[in-house]
Design goal:
Helix content is about 45%, strand content about 15%. The chain is an alpha/beta fold. It has a seven-stranded mixed sheet, with helices on both faces. Helix 22 links the parallel strand 10 and strand 11. The protein binds thiamine diphosphate (TPP).
Amino acid sequence: MRVLETVRGPADLKKLSPQELTDLAAEIRDVLVETVSRTGGHLGPNLGMVEITLAMHRVFDSPRDRLIYDTGHQTYVHKLLTGRAPKFDSLRQEGGLSGYPSQAESEHDIVENSHASTSLSYADGLAKAYRIRKEDRHVVALIGDGGLTGGMAWEALNNIAAEKDLKLVIIVNDNGRSYSPTVGGLATHLTALRTNPRYEKILDLIKKNLGRTPYVGAPMYEVLHGVKKGLKDMLAPQGMFEDLGLKYVGPVDGHDRQAMEDALSKAKAFGGPVIVHAVTQKGFGYAAAEQDEEDNFHQMRPANKPRGWTDVFAEELVRIGHRRPDVVAITAAMMNPTGINQFAQVFPDRTFDVGIAEQHAVTSAAGLAMGGMHPVVGLYATFLNRAFDQLLLDVALHKCGVTFVLDRAGVTGDDGPSHNGMWDMSIVQLVPGLRLAAPRDSTRLIELLNEAIDVSDAPTVVRYAKGEVFPDIDPIDKVGGLDVLHRSGTDVLLVGIGSMAATAMDVADRLQAQGIGVTVVDPRWVKPVDPKLIELAPQFKLVVTIEDNGRAGGCGVMIAQALRDHNITTPVRDFGIPQQFLDHAKRPAVLQQIGLTGQQIARDVIEAIAQIQGTEIDEPAAGRPGGA
Ligand SMILES: Cc1ncc(C[n+]2csc(CCOP(=O)(O)OP(=O)(O)O)c2C)c(N)n1
C-alpha cells in the first residue's frame, strides 16, 4: 500500500516515520507528474512545494491554524494531503477539483482568489481577528518570490511588522522564478544569497573554531554572532526584513523536510510575526521540469499548440517595433504568456518586466508616455482590474498615449472564477477618452493594434480571447467604422463584438433559416459607440448585441444607452456573461452553461422577434441565463 493512501488528513502525517515521509514525497511527485501531464495545470510550482507543504502540515494544525497560499496555484500537494487524493484525477475538470484552493472542497482551504500578492494582507487580517477574539491560532502565509514583487505584499509587511504579537508566520518560497526569473531589486538580493557559497562556508568555519576555544566560548560567540549578522546583512535580504522589524529565519533548504520543520517550529514558538525564507527549485525532482528553460513547467503546455491570438500579437508588435522606435513594451511578470518575449528578444532595451506589479506597470507606462515613448502594456484581461485607478487617473486624465493589450479576455474556463476576463470591457467604459477595440480575428487584431498604437493622446485597449485564433471573417461591406459581415434583411441587427462575431454569424444562419432577415456588423472599435451604429439601428425591429464580457456595464449596455440618448426606440437585447463567479470548466462548457452559444441566442432572438411581431411561434421556452 502506498503511503499516500494512508493519509486521509494532516493528522495522519504526524504519525509517519522519516522514511515513510521520504517515500510519501516521492509518491506525491509521481502523482503530480502523472496527473498534471494529463489534466494540464501548474506542475513546476507544485513539484517545488512537496517538502514545504509536508512540513507546514506537520508543524501546524490545519484547519485550526490557517494556511494561506499566495495565488494558490501551488496547492496541489496541500490538496493531496487534505483528503483529496482520491479525487485528484479530476483536477481542473468540470465538476472536479479546482486548480486553486476552494472553500467548497475543503475546510483546509480559505483563500480562493488566484490574483497574486494578497496572502499577507489576508493573513494580517485573520491573525488580528484571532487576537481580538482571543483564539490561540496561528496563521501561516506562503508567498513566492514572484508574489513578493507585488506592492500589496509590501503594504502588508509594513503593517505586520508593527504588530509585535501577531501569531503570523510568513514562508517565502524562493525559487528565483515567477514564470520567468523574478526581476527587480528584491530578486537580486534573494539571488545573491542563494548563489553565494561564501556565506555557508564562513558560518561553518565560525562554528568549528568556536568549539576549539573553550574559555572564551561565550563572549567569542557574541562577537562572532555579530560577525555573522554583519555578514548576513552584507549577503542576505534579512537586513531589509529585520530593519522593518520582522524576525527572519533562514535561508532554509526548502527541499529538506526536516530543516523546514525545524525552522517552522522555531517560527511558531516565537509568538510574533516571523519570515521563514525557504530556498527551492521550481520543478524539483522531475528532470524535464527542472531543465525547462522557459518556465520550469510553471504551467503544462500542450505539445502542438495551434496558432493563437498571442502569437499574432507577438509577431505584429515586433514589426511595429521596427517601424516605431518610440514603442516600448511592459509586462507584469508575464513575458512569455503575453507574447512580449518576442519583442524583448529584438528590443531588450525597450522592454520592461516589472514583476507582478500591474499598478506600477500602468503608472510607469504613463511616465514613459510623458517622456515621449508609446508604451504597450501586455496583461491578461483579468489583471487589469488591479490597476483601474492608475488607468483612470494616471493615464487617461493625463491623456497619455498608452496601448493596453488584454489577452485571455472573455471566458477562459479552466482556471476558474478569478481568471475569466469578464470585467475589462465594463471597467474601461468608465474611463473618459479611452478607446476600446475588440478584434474578431487575426487580420483585425493586426489592423486594430496598429490603429491603437497610432493614437497618441488617449489610452487605447485591444482585447482578445484565449487560445486558438478564429478563422478570418472578411467583411462584405463597410459602413463608417463598422464591418458588415452578413446582410439578408432588416429584422435584426446583430452586433458581434470581438470573438463573438463568429457566434453572431452562427446566429444569423439560424435566424435566416427561420425566415428572419438579419444584418451582422462588427464595430471593431466598441468604445466610443460608432455613430453609424446609431444611424443603422432605427432601420431594424431589434438590435442584438453579443459580447464575451459581463453584461453589467458592458458594450451592449453602452449601445442601448447611446440609442436612448438619440431617442431611438428600437429594442435592444444584450447577450453576455451573467454577473456571476463561474466555476471552472472548459470554455465551450461554460459558454453552454451561461447560454452564450449560437443555438441558445438564436432561440431567444426568435422569441423576441415573435413578441415584437405579436405572433406566437413554436419554440421551446427554456431558461436563458446569459440572455437579456
Ligand atoms: C495579479 C496577478 N498577476 C499575474 C498573475 C499570473 N501569475 C500566476 S503565478 C505567477 C508567478 C508566481 O510566482 P511565485 O509567486 O514566485 O510562485 P512560483 O510559481 O514560483 O511558486 C504569475 C505572474 C497572477 N496570478 N496575479
